[in-house]
Amino acid sequence: MKLRAVVGITLVVAMIATACGGDETSSVDGVGTDGGQAQTSVVVAAPLEPPTLDPTESSAAAIPEVLLYNVLETLVKLSDDGELEPLLAESYEQSDDGLTYTFHLREATFHDGSPLTAADVVFTFDRARAEDSAHPFKAHFDPVASVEATDERTVTVTLSSFSNNWLFNMSQGAGVILSEATIGQVAEHPVGTGPFEFATWNRGDSIELARYDGYWGDAPALQDVVFRYIEDATATNQALLAGDVDIISRVSGPELLEQFEGNAQFEVIDGLTNGETILAMNNASAVLADVRVRQAITHAIDRGALIDATYAGYGTRIGSHVPPTDPWYLDLTDLYPYDPDRARTLLAEAGVAEGTSLKMTLPPPSYARRGGEFIQGQLAEVGLQVEIENVEFPQWLESTFQASDFDLTIISHVEPRDIVQYGNPDYYWNYDNPDVATKLEQADAAPDTATRDQLYAEVQRTISETDVVNVWLFVLPNLAVVNSGISGYPTNKVSFSIDMTGVSYTM
Amino acid sequence: MSASASASESAIAAPRRARNLSGVIGGSLVALVVVTALVSYVWTPFDAARIAAADRLLGPLTDGHLLGTDPFGRDLLSQIMVGARTTLQVGVIAVAIALVAGVPLGGLAAMRGGWLDELLMRGADVMYAFPAVLMALMFAAAFGPSTWTAMTAIGVAFTPVFARVTRGASLQVRERDFVTAARSYGRGRLYVFVRHVLPNISSILIVQASISFALAILAEAALSYLGFGTQPPTPSWGRMLKEAQTFLTLEPNLAVWPGLVIALAVLGFNLLGDGLRDALDPKLVERSGVGN
Amino acid sequence: MWLLVIRRTGLFLASLLVASIIVFIALALLPGDAAQTVLGVEATPEALERLRVRFGLDRPLIVQYVDWLAGVVRGDFGVSYVSRVPIAPLIGNRLLVTVPLVLLAMTLALVGALPLGTFAAARHGRWESTAVSAAAQVGIAIPAFWAGIMLIALVSVRLGWLPAGGFTAWGRDAASAARSLLLPAVSIALVQGAILTRYTRSAVVDVLREDFIRTARAVGNTPGRALWRHGLRNAAIPVITVLGLQLSYLLAGAVVIENVFFLPGLGRMLVQAIGQRDLLLVQGTVVVLTAMVLLVNFATDLAYYVLDPRLRPS
Questions:
Q1: What is the DSSP letter of A285?
Q2: For range B21-39, the mean pLDDT
Q3: Can you tell me the distance from the alpha carbon of C133 to that of C123, in angstroms, rounded to the nearest whole number?
Q4: Regions in chain A scoring below 50 on pLDDT
Q5: Quick check: helix, strand or coil at residue B195?
Q6: pLDDT, tens digit, for every residue of A466-482?
Q7: Which chains pack against C, by 3+ Cβ pairs within 8 A?
Q8: Mutate to test the interface with A, among B50, B51, B55, B137 (most CBs of A within 10 A)
Q9: Do C166 and A57 touch (CB under 8 A)?
Q10: Nearest to B226 by CA among C260, C150, C189
Q11: For residue B65, what is the DSSP state?
Q12: Is the peptide bond between A254 and the residue preceding it cis, with omega within 30 degrees of 0?
């Protein structure tokens, strides 16, 4: 199974799917809307089928891929340029102390015909943050002190402490508004307020959405959207060539893009995501505790070649835990260039014997498995013996992520603005630098963006240049292929959603 | 053969010759795999594990790479040569496990009889019904996927076959005169089994082992293909096929060679088994030739 | 006869019980659990604990097992941890892929193997027979998943005739569904057909040597006619034995081919469920698989009785 057979569960996969910090985004330009025959139905190929359709019960990235913005809506939406814009909230105000948000809801209706009211928002948020909640993103609701319906269409949310990230999080899958009447059926038949309503789910094959005629906003150009689940890269490509699908939403075999590049019938989209793919190092492990060893490992890996070998050259190199799309990005890619001799010298200085063994755990995604094999070969060149342990995702979570029982691992961190994890001494890579933690806290509370960016820049320098916490490999690309008649398909992934609301199709 | 041989004699003799021929072909193929594995210890065209990003996906006969290179620029032929070691190792260990566990159990069932026999044979039935793939997957999940877990799982899965064959053959031998005689001299069951029964059923076990060897190769290839067998950087024919599948549109050549060598190795052991069967003429071999 | 049925049923249930206990214990010992899989990396420890309680994973193992067993006895396989839907329809949905796949493959194998094996037997000792035997030997040695990959390279990638993988639900487009199963079925059939050819050939050769065939020929029947009227029933028994073994092997063994073609079959669901530690789903699938294997074995035995009156217990 390909054995990456492993399923589309949660983050690891999410990593492939991911959100993006945002930069100016261009939409795909099709052949133009006039002159062609408008198609009302589009088939989108995606590699992983959701296990359930309830985003409040599972963190699987495949759920928001289909549902977010298409079927289920949030109060605010993350725009292509990374700004929050109104969605179900027609407008909102934030109090001067930043602790109180007042949302004014639109006149929207759920797909079962019932109107959206403030009570639905209160129900959704209170259910997620309740004492007995097992919401996958319950932590996102931690800052919330109270949620109240001020009137039929006004909701007031009070935070217990200031948080820049709360509203951002509410624009993602955790923030979709559901109704109490239909909550029991979400796993199999989600009911939301979006431009498309859920139609059918042919398990093992596809999920079909249909245009919802009672939508509050502009009606989408498409009548039907079908998400077809084909895990294999070759099979997906064949399906596109045969006309069985119109869009490959996520290219899992980047090497195979060759056949579409330069073909006028198709357009290859090479956009950005927020997934920093790293070789994480356990800073508390005996050998890796020495910064010279971590420097040596960074020197030993030819990251350009790695991107060529594992992602056909499509990834963007990074030198720290910030994607180029974030406002405080610093280009640190050449701090520790590929230099095996320097690596060997550093290892000798650190007293690391030739043939010292390191344990590398690898979760199922192919960037991890293939990248691991590549790095194993490169570290062998400098005298480090890497024992690879391929693990399923639950095991990775337990042994690597929770118990830190590893020396090296490869993972893509897809959460937006996740540099904050370097301030958490208990995080799985065991990096403990109080100075960094303090600066990160100050940055979150910073009153102006200049101060904030300055603090984040200092943190980047410390973690990459001074402390070399991890080896930052590349940012996962958002690779898609669309039929050239398609327009409006987003280039960058600014959220988990495969956002079909603005897509049109002209033959 | 003389010209006076009758028609019917030659009709029977012909397949016998063909059988011997298959033994020879099988033996040669097996020898080829063994020699390749041995040679790989002292010489391969390239270092099988050497990653060279610049030499990615070269076609056959390019820059000294006879069969071309894989997506990491590793030489395909060298990997196949080293992979032969894995294949032989898996066959030897899996069959050894099945022999060491299955033969005593089968012997015990045959020599003791009664409720123990019944219990052991019903146990073998349950193991038979339990999907072998599932067992291998759970082994891999519990102990981590590796060549060793794959070999162990395959060996355990083969154990009931060897137990049944041993039991069946022992029951027949047990009734023969010399065994009855030994028993009447007061020899213990264990002594009789080891001294008298075992030598007489060894030919059956040899043939069974040869055929199981072929099945073990197929099983390891399948498990490694699924990712539950041999792990990188150790080359494995099955895993090479998994990697090749991703590049099928670009380099179908990658998928041809590993599959071909698996088929040749399996063919070799199967033919050798047939040849041995013909030479040793045991009956009762269980050819659960379904393990593919 | 009734005694036999009772005995077989008892063994059947005992086997299921043993298999389910082994799987239950083994799965409980595996590192990682379903709650973590479901909630992912951002889950708070409290949410994980809540979910474990909700799943009943906090109870002693024996209680969990007995609870599950009591459900199964009532025909309730429980709810999947990961999918949050009842398990029975999930399994049923996957059977709609695996069972047609296996049946189609074995039909193709039979259609090829029976005539070929019989032909080879009839030409016993001539070059045609040797050619068929040699081809069968080669077929047996080919890994089915390699055959699948080669077929994809040729039929899907090169010729573009059939999909390279994936499955279209029967309800959405039955013709496409059948098309998705065709290449995988051929991959399986090539190998299983080779095995069947070999057995058919040797079974028919054995029958042709039997006295009653010689007698039939002596009274003026042609060899083909003698075989057709008297021999096939006898030749069928060893062939059916192999067929039964193949069917029971393929129910779970098809997982390899399901992976080559990314088909949503039962075996593939099992692998995924183990990967996600979806304990009850694994349990349910194993019980269904084991039960099907045992039923196939039972059906094979029944076929003996039908074909050979001598085996019937009086």
A1: S
A2: 93
A3: 11
A4: 1-35
A5: helix
A6: 999 999 999 988 899 99
A7: A, B
A8: B51
A9: no
A10: C260
A11: B
A12: no
